[in-house]
Design brief:
23% strand, 10 helices, Rossmann fold, alpha/beta, 13-stranded mixed sheet, 13 strands, 3 domains, 357 residues, globular
């Protein structure tokens, strides 16, 4: 078991025993100085708006309250597509977590799915945003994973809440996964609940009711991460070909159980799984290890599946003599899509058309 998996078990309550209990107590106390520091930081920006830098074009931020995967890449892709449909020169800007040299896995996925939308990365997102305007003539910027980045002013903050992991039951880091208190949702301009098909409807209704009570004017929508196609070395395959097959899956993402549920919803039977840390940089050793793992799988396993984020770093057609394919997903709205698209149009100064989609 990796240290990351052990830590997840501790904060999630699935790890038992004296060591896990002591760790939870220590992490509970450690969250206090973290929360104090985050509170002071947010107070400074709230009290002194001039600390924020405004670039000369609209900025739409896609972010969340927690560490781990809520599906930001898929939402950022959707937002960029909508803005491109409005004939805008869109540039994606991100910090580039998980990489020290070259584009991150999210950037590679977005480049593959949105070849006409440039993606700039850098720790100084204000400088990167200015470069997007000055060098790439951007007239709108999509800031990926930037809700906690207060220094760059944004015109719309889209915050994602994973419906399978209610933030109301979470603690601040390092005891839990919250980057900042849930009260900071007051800064949001729109909330998207993601993975709504992977949770009980009553549980989702409870979360929406809580949000409506705490933030009555905050608009919301519900979405799912819908599988679109299978990606392989020679192109794409129909997603329906997975149904009825016995498969093995592996991933290195923020929330691996969500990918497992997606594959199960496709009608596949998962025989074996393997998890890596989020943003895992696959090495030659990792590929050799995956080949050994795949070779030892039961004979009835005819397909290995991974995420597109993992695929862009591997790009191998098979493992252990079995075909490897990536599941590409897209954003699908259950409700609120018109309201969300209108919010994006309003940022651009476009008057929303009643009844438009």
């Amino acid at each position: 078991m990796t240290a990351e998996n052990w830590y997840r078990g501790v904060i999630g309550g699935t790890r038992r025993g004296p060591a896990a209990w002591i760790a939870r107590v220590a992490l509970w106390w450690a969250r206090l100085p973290y929360g104090f520091g985050m509170g002071v930081r947010n107070w400074r920006y709230d009290r002194h708006p001039k600390l924020m830098t405004r670039v000369p074009v609209p900025v739409v931020c896609v972010g969340n309250l927690t560490v781990g995967g809520t599906g930001k890449t898929v939402v950022a892709e959707y937002v960029a597509r909508v803005l491109r449909e409005l004939d805008r020169q869109v540039v994606l800007v991100s910090r580039g977590y998980g990489t020290t040299n070259g584009p991150s896995d999210e950037a590679m996925v977005l480049e593959e799915n949105l070849p006409d939308v440039p993606h700039l990365q850098g720790a100084d997102r204000v400088a990167v945003a200015n470069a997007a305007v000055e060098e790439l003539e951007a007239d709108v910027i999509v800031l990926d994973d930037g809700f906690q980045h207060r220094r760059l002013h944004r015109d719309l903050d889209v915050v994602l809440l994973d419906a399978t992991q209610p933030v109301t039951s979470e603690y601040l880091l390092p005891r839990g996964t919250l980057r900042e208190p849930v009260t900071e949702l007051r800064r949001a301009g729109f909330v998207l609940f993601t993975r709504c098909d992977q949770t009980d409807p009553t549980r989702l209704d409870t979360q929406r009711s809580w949000l409506a009570k705490q933030f009555p004017t905050l608009p919301t929508a519900t979405t799912v991460h819908s599988p679109i196609e299978l990606i392989g070395p020679d192109g794409t395959d129909e997603i329906g070909t997975v149904g009825g097959k016995k498969v093995a899956v592996f991933s290195g993402i923020g929330h691996p159980p969500a990918f497992i549920r997606t594959v199960e919803q496709l009608g596949a039977t998962i025989v074996a799984t393997r998890e890596y840390p989020d943003h895992h940089p696959y090495s030659r050793h990792d590929v050799d290890e995956l080949n050994r793992w795949a070779t030892d799988l039961p004979s009835e396993v005819g397909l290995i599946l991974t995420t597109q984020k993992d695929w862009v770093k591997l790009r191998v057609g098979e493992l252990g003599g079995r075909p490897l394919r990536a599941v590409r997903v897209g954003l699908r709205f259950l409700d609120g899509e018109e309201s969300f698209r209108n919010a994006l149009q309003s940022v651009l100064g476009v008057v929303p058309v009643e009844g438009s989609e």
